[in-house]
Amino acid sequence: MEETTPRKKRILSGIQPTGTFTLGNYIGAVRNWAKLQDEFECLYMVADLHALTVRQNPADLRRNTRDAAAMLLAAGIDPKQSLLFVQSHVPAHTQLNWILCCNAQFGELSRMTQFKDKSAKHPDNVNGGLFTYPCLMAADILIYNADLVPVGQDQTQHLELTRNVAQRFNSAYSDTFVLPEGYTTKEGAKVMSLQEPTKKMSKSDTNVNGFILMSDDADTIMRKFKRAVTDSEGIVRYDPAAKPGVSNLMSIYQVFTGKDVAAIEREFDGCGYGDFKVAVAQSVIDALAPIQQEFNRIVADKAYVDSVLAAGAEGANRIAGRTMQKVYRKVGLMQL
Ligand code: AMP
Ligand code: TRP
Question: Is 200 an active-site residue?
Answer without folding.
Answer: yes
